[in-house]
Design a protein that fits this description.
- This protein is mainly beta.
- The chain is 15% helix and 48% strand.
- It has two domains: 156 residues, Immunoglobulin-like; 109 residues, Immunoglobulin-like, CATH 2.60.40.10.
- It has three helices and 15 strands.
- The strands form three sheets. Strands 1, 2, 3, 4, 5, 6, 7 and 8 form an eight-stranded mixed sheet that branches.
- The longest helix has 29 residues.
- It starts with a helix and ends in a 5-residue tail after the last helix.
Length: 289
């Protein structure tokens, strides 16, 4: 089901990605890098990396970890090669983390960083950070799946004093919105698509949300993925993104054709009433003798 669900996102990526020709042969491997020693109470970073002999531009990964031994304290996508997130990385209460996104520029090589996850070791024990699913797509304009390997990572939390805590990220700069667009959905004329590119190199993007107008009042704020379907008569959208430190950035865009046709009847009525009022008072005005 997940492979089908990602195809609309791949169509979106195709607008930005270069089209490659020919047949690609090679291997794609996902791996996780962690420190050698982990003790209870220690915070450590796990780097989700990819090595690939073929150019890739989309990823769909589900990680699992034992929540009784490890706790996710932070997710940092600031240094990720993924620049177009369908959803920001999501951590569930079941001990799962999903990341789905891609890049306008294809990646090929070793040690490509997808995500940095900060864990805290809760107690001693053996744990495994596993790839429940790990899919990558070749940048060939067709959404072809790459052949992937994704070995699980076994680790041990051993007795000892907690190691020095990782320093907090210093980030006083809000995220940057590189693209914000509201356009007709080419596949469904009854809705519009909100698309965006937003990045934060210091701490990464934590969440994106938006609200819209179909007439005069704003809708409620709602989390948005990339792209997000909105009503066909939406004429204004306010978009907001926050990084992992909490710095916000916001912007409003307008869809002028809808704005014009939505308010044209109102403008026409106002003009008619003003004209009628002008004629009425002109007739009532006493003539000069």
């Amino acid at each position: 089901m997940r492979s089908r669900a990602i195809y609309p996102f791949l169509i979106f990526l195709a607008v930005f990605a270069a089209i490659f020709s020919g047949v690609f042969a090679g291997q794609t491997a996902f791996r996780i890098g962690i420190p050698e020693k982990i003790t209870p109470g220690t915070e450590f970073e796990a780097n989700i990396l990819v090595d690939s002999d073929v150019p890739l531009n989309a990823f769909d990964i589900l990680l699992r970890y034992p929540k009784d031994i490890l706790e996710v304290t932070r997710v940092d996508n600031g240094g990720s090669l993924i620049t177009i997130w369908q959803n920001q990385p999501q951590v569930s209460e079941a001990g799962e983390l999903r990341l789905t996104g891609g890049s306008a520029q294809a990646f090929q090589g070793n040690g490509g960083e997808l995500l940095t996850v900060r864990f805290k070791a809760l107690r001693e024990g053996k744990a495994s950070i596993s790839f429940a699913s790990a899919e990558a797509y070749i940048a060939d304009g067709k959404g072809t799946k790459a052949e992937t390997t994704a070995p699980n990572l076994a680790l041990s939390v051993v007795a000892g004093s907690p190691l020095a805590l990782l320093p907090g990220t210093k980030d006083n700069t809000p995220p940057k919105i590189d693209l914000l667009a509201l356009e007709k959905d080419p596949f469904n004329p009854e809705q519009k698509l909100l698309t965006f590119l937003v990045n934060d190199k210091d701490s990464g993007i934590k969440e994106t949300s938006a609200r819209y107008k179909t007439f005069l009042s704003w809708s409620e704020w709602q989390p948005v993925q990339n792209p997000t379907a909105l009503p066909e008569n939406a004429w204004a959208v306010e978009f907001e993104a926050r990084d992992n430190v909490g710095n916000p950035v916001a912007s409003i865009i307008y869809y002028w054709p809808v704005l014009f046709w939505n308010f044209l009847p109102t403008f026409a009525i106002v003009l008619v009433l003003l004209g009628a009022g002008f004629l009425f008072f002109r007739r009532k005005r006493p003539e000069n003798i």
